[in-house]
Write a structure and sequence with these properties.
3 domains; 292 residues; VC0802-like; elongated; 16 strands; four-stranded antiparallel β-sheet; alpha+beta; GMP Synthetase, Chain A, domain 3; three-stranded antiparallel β-sheet
């Protein structure tokens, strides 16, 4: 992107003539602004093709004062003080901002006296924004080991067990299998049950957290969750919905309404519920613990 400093005559129609000259040449203005000081009109406009814009302007008899490469940076519009912070970062690096305006995508355009040093500051700002937007990253590692080889492996569909173990370092193994409808062992956990349980426990943990923050004392919690999966033609399938039925016991009647409302926030905060593509709803209830 190039910023052109332009001198216009201080009279009606001068800006129109500039726009018409650029339009005739097929040059689009990407951003900019102007001002009048001591009777002289100075404009700064942003162009993808600075050379083509300059040629069009000069052919129309319009004076181009300067042509410079600029830094284009996006600020977090919802956070007060962003302009001050990036300007302070430039100042701390010894960079003076000489031109400043925004483009049509609400990005900040900066013309600076030391382009290389200013670019370093701008690139560091971008990395910080990306890290903040991405947030903290967490990784989870598990090991699944099949234990269902009865001697002939998968030589036939019915000749092997679906048994497996799910392990994570430092934790007891979870015995797994498939749903009995798919020849699994009813006494072991299947993936569908674990998905429903994951949604249920995630909701529970957030709910207890929110109650603790709100000063609500929960003394018991149980959720009889249910998920519905539908098989598709060809053998595949997908979950259509999961219904959570959390039932909490609290110590104070005055907190009953708030305790019920916090289920909505717990759902919004749940990492697992935010990661699935089917509805997860909560049919919640709250009772108040009887005095002892």
């Amino acid at each position: 992107m190039r910023d052109l400093g332009i001198r216009l005559e201080h009279r009606p129609g001068a800006l129109a003539e500039m726009g018409e000259a650029l339009g005739t040449a097929g040059v689009s203005v990407e951003g900019g602004g102007g001002f009048v000081v001591d009777g002289k009109a100075t404009m700064h406009f942003l162009f993808d093709d600075g050379a083509k814009a300059r040629a069009a302007l000069e052919a129309a008899g319009i004076e181009v004062l300067e042509d410079r490469e600029v830094l284009v940076q996006r600020l977090d519009q919802g956070t007060p003080g962003q302009l001050g912070r990036i300007a302070r970062a430039m100042s701390d690096a010894g960079v003076n901002i000489e031109v400043l305006y925004s483009d049509h995508e609400n990005q900040l355009v900066l013309g600076v006296d030391q382009l290389a040093r200013g670019r370093q500051v701008s690139e560091a700002w971008t990395r910080q924004r990306q890290a903040k937007r991405k947030g903290r990253e967490h990784s989870y590692r598990t090991t699944v080991s099949w234990t269902g080889n009865t001697g002939t492996g998968t030589a036939s569909y019915r000749g092997y067990k679906r048994d497996h173990e799910i392990a994570a370092e430092g934790k007891p193994a979870i015995p797994g299998s498939s749903d009995p409808a798919f020849l699994g062992d009813r006494s072991r956990w299947n993936p569908e049950e674990m998905l429903v349980a994951s949604l249920s426990t995630c909701h529970q943990l957030w709910y207890l957290h929110l109650c603790a923050d709100a000063g609500i004392v929960v003394t018991a919690y149980e959720d009889r969750a249910e998920g519905v999966m539908v098989e598709q033609a060809g053998g595949s399938g997908r979950f259509e919905r999961v219904v959570l039925r959390p039932h909490a016991t609290i110590t104070s009647e005055e907190h009953r309404e708030l305790a019920l409302s916090l289920h909505e926030k717990a759902h919004a905060m749940c990492f697992i519920a935010s990661s699935v593509n089917f509805p997860v709803t909560a049919e919640a209830s709250v009772i108040v613990e009887a005095p002892r």
